[in-house]
């Protein structure tokens, strides 16, 4: 039941996001605004408990959700045969560049400023 | 025989077919992925897409009639983007503590991923529409489609590029990180996961979640951040220049 309630919350926030995005002509996609709204509402246990269950399920099967769009590559076979190798080269090279820059910048920033990752952040009132 | 053909014609024209085929192929590919010890090359999305696309081409079922069923899965991408608020919430303490360096890494990685695809696409002489569809490829597919539409790319193509980008991260990330000598301690995993979420969105994050819990959590965080940053900044940059 909680998972179902969680789904309701996700859809409610997505709809609210779509309404805001269209109504106020915001530059963000509806689901993204929905995500920000959810983040603000998660402090409320009535949202938190059900969303935890549903989001956990949905995100653990995230890769499945990309299959239908991925199969759409078959509708662009003419483009693929014409530019396929070059497009693939661009995707591979720029993805590797993005990965390398992200991992190195975070690694260097962490190295310069040692983390206190070993000790969990103290809660208020913790002795 | 003709009964069978009639049955096939009927089934392949109903939404049931696309939905069942997608789930069945994915579940089998996922089982094979675990059989193969979660090796990157055994990626379940890669093989599901190959098997389904070849199957549709071989049987002559059109993509729109497949998608009539598969759209029920595709639809869940929207709620999944909303659900990304959950990993952000779980890691809010880290986010508050380290927001500076995380934001720097997310901006640096995201702009290199988008900028380099623009430059390389032009360098390799790709048509403008294709280049603009390549730019948002490091953002999760539904958001990439929206961004591509805003800057003049082809949404359907942007989604395909996003999926390939995700697969590149899931397939080669491991080797790249090893070559860059990123350690496999808690901080190293955090950096690896964050990079996968930033540069190869949901598919990279899914891979990170399979491999290591820390990496997975940071990948989810990066994915959520990148969605907000890219959908704000990419259209803005294109409007300004």
UniProtKB/TrEMBL annotation, chain A:
The keyword tRNA-binding does not apply. InterPro entries: LrgA/CidA (IPR005538). It is found in: Cell membrane. This is LrgA family protein. Pfam families: LrgA. The chain crosses the membrane at residues 20-42, 54-75, 87-109. The lineage of its organism: Bacteria, Pseudomonadati, Pseudomonadota, Betaproteobacteria, Burkholderiales. Keywords: Cell membrane, Membrane, Transmembrane, Transmembrane helix. It comes from Polaromonas naphthalenivorans (strain CJ2). Its main location: membrane. GO terms for cellular component: plasma membrane. It is a multi-pass membrane protein. The keyword Membrane applies.
UniProtKB/TrEMBL annotation, chain B:
InterPro entries: CidB/LrgB. Pfam families: LrgB (PF04172). It is found in: Membrane. It is a multi-pass membrane protein. Keywords: Membrane, Transmembrane, Transmembrane helix. GO terms for cellular component: membrane. It comes from the Bacteria. The chain crosses the membrane at residues 12-33, 45-66, 72-90, 102-124, 154-177, 215-238. This is LrgB family protein. The lineage of its organism: Bacteria, Pseudomonadati, Pseudomonadota, Betaproteobacteria, Burkholderiales.
């Amino acid at each position: 039941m909680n998972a179902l309630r969680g789904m309701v919350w996700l859809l409610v926030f997505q709809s609210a996001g779509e309404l805001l995005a269209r109504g106020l002509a915001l530059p963000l996609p509806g689901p993204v605004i929905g995500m920000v709204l959810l983040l603000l509402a998660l402090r409320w246990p009535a949202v938190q408990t059900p969303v935890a269950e549903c989001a956990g399920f949905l995100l653990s099967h995230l890769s499945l959700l990309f299959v239908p769009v991925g199969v759409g590559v078959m509708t662009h076979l003419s483009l693929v045969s014409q530019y396929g190798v070059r497009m693939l080269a661009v995707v591979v090279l720029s993805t590797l560049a993005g990965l390398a820059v992200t991992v190195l910048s975070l690694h260097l920033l962490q190295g310069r400023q040692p983390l206190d990752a070993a000790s969990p952040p103290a809660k208020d009132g913790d002795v | 025989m003709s009964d069978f053909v009639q049955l096939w014609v009927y089934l392949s024209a109903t939404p049931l077919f696309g939905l069942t085929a997608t789930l069945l192929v994915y579940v089998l590919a996922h089982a094979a992925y675990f059989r193969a010890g979660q090796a990157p090359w055994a990626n379940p999305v890669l093989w599901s897409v190959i098997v389904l696309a070849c199957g549709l081409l071989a049987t002559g079922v059109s993509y729109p009639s497949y998608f009539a069923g598969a759209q029920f899965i595709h639809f869940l991408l929207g709620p999944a983007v909303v659900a990304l608020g959950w990993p952000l919430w779980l890691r809010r303490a880290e986010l508050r503590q380290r927001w500076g360096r995380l934001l720097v890494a997310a901006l640096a990685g995201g702009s290199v991923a988008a900028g380099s695809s623009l430059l390389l696409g032009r360098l390799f002489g790709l048509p403008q529409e294709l280049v603009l569809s390549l730019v948002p490829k490091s953002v999760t597919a539904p958001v990439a489609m929206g961004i591509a539409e805003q800057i003049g790319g082809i949404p359907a193509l942007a989604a395909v590029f996003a999926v390939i980008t995700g697969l590149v991260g899931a397939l080669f990330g491991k080797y790249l990180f090893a070559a860059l000598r990123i350690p496999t301690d808690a901080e190293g995993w955090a950096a690896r996961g964050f990079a996968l979420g930033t540069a190869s969105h949901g598919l990279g994050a899914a891979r990170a979640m399979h491999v290591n819990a820390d990496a997975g959590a940071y990948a989810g965080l990066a994915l959520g951040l990148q969605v907000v940053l890219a959908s704000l900044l990419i259209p803005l940059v294109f409007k300004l220049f």
